[in-house]
Write a structure and sequence with these properties.
This protein folds into three domains: 4-68, Ubiquitin-like (UB roll), CATH 3.10.20; 74-159, no CATH class; 166-329, no CATH class. 53% of the residues lie in helices and 12% in strands. It has 15 helices and six strands. The chain is globular, with a radius of gyration of 22 Å.
């Protein structure tokens, strides 16, 4: 990114400061509130224009618009060609759209609700894509294109990972990437992935709720699935196809693996016991009192959005600063 930019007040190229601030923008006649980045001249304090940051602010505005109107996220759209090994133009033709329609969506154009629902379902359900492929393969211009994408979707279908159950897909990735992860640490990793994903993409990765148990946030079904391991590491997953993730999903998971899963489950328990979501859900309960109270997603989202802002996180890897700070407080 450019480190200097032109200041209209100083009439010179200057260095600038960067700060996260609440912003308001208008899309299709309606105002939306979002967290953006403000840049000011270090000499006179005036607002200055930085192209890269202006573009990022516009993406943040559109992300909020997409979320509030149920439109598929941009990172999901952009991941579909890679996931199914097909070019943007062939995919657009396969779907019976104009040849450049899908490319425009990848460039940031917002799809209609109808097209959004189709794209969301294509990403989430390989079988749905496979059915479309067979039904519309005559739209493709070459047999080679068909064979490549058919092989990609067949590989996903044969992997046996439930495409509509994101939390279990994430668990398999954690078990593949982490050298040893206990049930306690697994629960905390899922909780941090959920919170951080919302902080960066303003939507939740899992529909499941977690509960404020004695030892921190717990996804009940996951607890019963792995409880027999007790304090032992869960059996490692031998292989994993990362094409089931969007770029954003993988970035969040990798950051948690590198910066959160390096701590033990007990250390992460101490982290969560100092954080607002667990404390709010438990209210005045003693630390040792059993509880099945749900930690509201809205509280998780608000907390991690505030963490992202407070630690000036520009990418998922920046969670390292927060994790190190929490560790030093123990």
């Amino acid at each position: 990114m450019t480190k200097r930019t032109f200041c209209e007040e100083c009439r010179d190229d200057v260095e600038f400061t960067v700060a996260s601030v609440p912003m308001t923008g208008t899309v299709k006649g309606k105002e939306y509130h979002y967290t953006g980045t403000e840049t000011r001249c270090v000499n006179c304090g005036s607002l200055v224009f930085v192209p890269e940051i202006s573009d990022a602010n516009l993406r943040s505005l559109y992300d909020v618009f997409r979320e509030e109107n149920g439109i598929v996220p941009l990172d999901v759209i952009c991941s579909i060609p890679e996931k199914y090994d097909i070019g943007k133009r062939p995919l657009s033709l396969l779907l019976g759209w104009g040849e450049l329609t899908f490319s425009r969506y990848c460039d940031g154009d917002i799809p209609t609700r109808q097209y959004s629902d189709i794209l969301r379902r294509i990403y989430a359900e390989p079988q749905y894509y496979a059915d479309l492929l067979e039904e519309n393969k005559g739209n493709l211009k070459s047999l080679r294109t068909y064979k490549k994408t058919r092989q990609a979707v067949d590989s996903l279908l044969s992997a046996g990972i439930p495409s509509d159950n994101k939390i279990h897909t994430v668990i398999q990735y954690l078990l593949n990437q982490c050298e040893d992860i206990t049930p306690l640490a697994l629960q905390k990793a899922l909780y941090y992935i959920q919170g951080l994903y919302f902080a960066f993409y303003r939507t939740f990765l899992f529909p499941e709720d977690c509960e404020a148990w004695v030892h921190g946030p717990v996804y009940r079904d996951i607890y019963f699935r792995y409880r027999d391991y007790r304090f032992d590491p869960i059996k490692k997953t031998a292989s994993f196809d990362t094409s089931v993730f969007t770029e954003g999903e993988k970035a969040i998971c990798d950051s948690v693996i590198n910066n959160i899963c390096c701590y033990s489950g007990k250390v992460l328990e101490c982290f969560t016991h100092k954080e607002t979501p667990w404390l709010t859900a438990r209210g005045n309960l003693p630390d040792s009192a059993p509880s099945d109270k749900i930690i509201e997603k809205s509280v998780i989202g608000a907390y991690f959005a505030a963490v992202k802002s407070r630690y000036h996180m520009s990418n998922p890897g920046d969670i390292k600063n927060y994790a190190e700070d929490m560790f030093h407080q123990l």
